[in-house]
Structure formats: C-alpha cells, structure tokens
Amino acid sequence: VGPIIYSCNPRFYPGGESKKIVERQLSFRQVRVKVRDVKGKEHDIDTALIDHFLYSSDPALHPLDQRALYIDFKERMKKQGKDPGSPDFKMAARTDKYFNALQAKFGYAITCHKSQGGEWPFVFVDFNVFMGKVSAGFFRWAYTAVTRSSKVLATVDSPDFNSFTRLQFEEIQPKKDLWKKAFFAETSPDNPLRFVDIRVNKLNQAFQREGITISWDRADWFLLCNCTRGEESATIKLHFKKDGFSKATFPSISSPSFKSLLRELLKDSLIPDHIPFQPQFPAMKDLHTHITESLTAENAVLTNIIRHPYSDKFYFMADQSFGMLEFFHNSKQQFTKAVSWISDPDDDVPASLIEKILSGI
Question: CATH 3.30.310.240 spans which residues of the chain?
C-alpha cells in the first residue's frame, strides 16, 4: 500500500429536480496487488484504489461518486484530445488507472458462505440473521459459522437453544383417582411384593413411636392390622395389587381422632425412601434435579416416577393433595410437551407448585 497519488473534486448537477451543484471528493491510493493466474502463478500488479471507500459504511460506491468518477475521467480525456465515443476514449475507459481503480473495503466481516474452508484464531458471529432459528438451514449456517474459529469464538445475539426450547405447556387438569399410581412400589426379582414388607416395617416403627400396639394378619391381597392404644382401637385393612397398594379401609374404629392419626401414619408410610431414576440424557437429569429441589423447597415430596419410552411422569404429594407432571420428549433429546394433573381442584397448593416448576424451566 502506497501514498495518495491523485485527488480530484468533480462538480456537477446531480440531475432530477435538484438545481444545486454538488461536489464530490475522490482520492486514489497507490497499491500493489498480488493475483494468481489460472496456472497458479502469482503476478504483482500496480494499480490505484479509491481511498475514501475503504472507510465507507455503504456496501457499494455511492451513485454520486460513480458519476464523479466518470466526469473526472471525461475531463482528463478531454485534455488529452480523446472525445467521448471515439475509439481512443473507449480504449482509455478500459485501461485508465483511476477510472478502473479498485473499489475495496476493509474486511471487517465476511459472510458465512464466503468463510467456508477458512479458519481464524478470533471469530465474531452475529446471529441476528433474517431466517428462522429452528430450521435446518439455520443450523447448517450456524455450524459453519461457529466452526471457523481455532481459538476464540464470540457470539452476538446468539439464540438460547436447549432441550426445552420447544417445550409446550398444557393447562392443569383435575384427576380424582390420581393417587392410585402416586406412590412408588419397590419390587425385586426374588420378592415381587417387596413394597409390602417395606410398608409393614415403616408402620411398625411409626406405631411404636406413637405408643400403638399392633398385630398383623396377611392374606393374598390384603393386610389386616389390629391397633390398640389405651382405650382406643382400630382394625385397618390394606389392599394391594402387584403394582402397589390400592386402598385402606377401617372395618372398625373407636374414635374419629384415632382414625385421623392412623390415616396420617398410613400416608407417611407410603412415601418412598428413594425412587430409582436413570436419566437418558443430560437435560433429563437437569429436569429431575429441578423438580426434586422445587418440591423440597415447598415442603412437598416426590412420591413416584413412571417411565415410558418417550415420556416420564413425576408424582408428588403436597399437604393432603397430589399432583403429577408428565414430560414428553423425542429421539433428539428435546422436550416437546408437558401435561399436568391435580387430585383436588379446590386445593391451590399442588397447582401453584406445578406452575412454579414449569416457570423455572
């Protein structure tokens, strides 16, 4: 790059309705350009470059500058005796150093398309592009852009994409029998009814703490528990199936207060000590953590997780009511839909807790 070698200030009427003479300043800088021919051989060419266009914010040379370029050329040719339209004038138009000066700009940025195959240590990617940000074309464009950097990548207006971007929430629905599958029933290969033994053990400990004396009778699909404490007594019948306990009845009870206490102990005995959960992908692990932490913060408890190939149901208990959230996902590890139910529509606690969980995603 050399110095400024020629400057001019062509003055002319722009035409149209304007009657005012305009003046445009043109400056030309000496440059040496390396070019490669079709055989791969390099050549040095000395030519001129329009200097002020290097710093212009316009994508192309301004129309008035284009006109000024021609007017300056025509004035210089006139001094050389080359009239417009003559063969000499036409030849000069193809070879004149200034009329054919390079129109170049500093390479502040290049399009993603033109960057393909290149690599730079520091790359800035502007994601403010005029295309949908969830289309296949966008992701191809983004992949090309972010992989141009070898050291440092900086992004501008980058979209926040994650596994929850397409997640849609449906309205909370009531479901009275939600409790039927609300509790995790632990089993094992050698003991398919392990959940029965676990609950009996929990109830034994709970009754002992309350000073209640008990005795058990067991049939195929129910347990009978005879309870006494002083003058109070009750018989509890706990029904169960292969997938867990189904209901509790009281064939006999001495007082409403004793029944209330027993119901509370029965409910607590259903809460599992742990629920096995193996996340299929990282976002699923994050979701599980978010749900358990949100429940703990509100003194609620996760009671069951039922897994399906493309969805997971999270059951919880808050106060005396139940809630359930089911999250659907696809094979691309993207969550698509969340549906929720509550056992008691008159109880605001489960519904507000569901809303808190969903709003925190």
Answer: 188-270
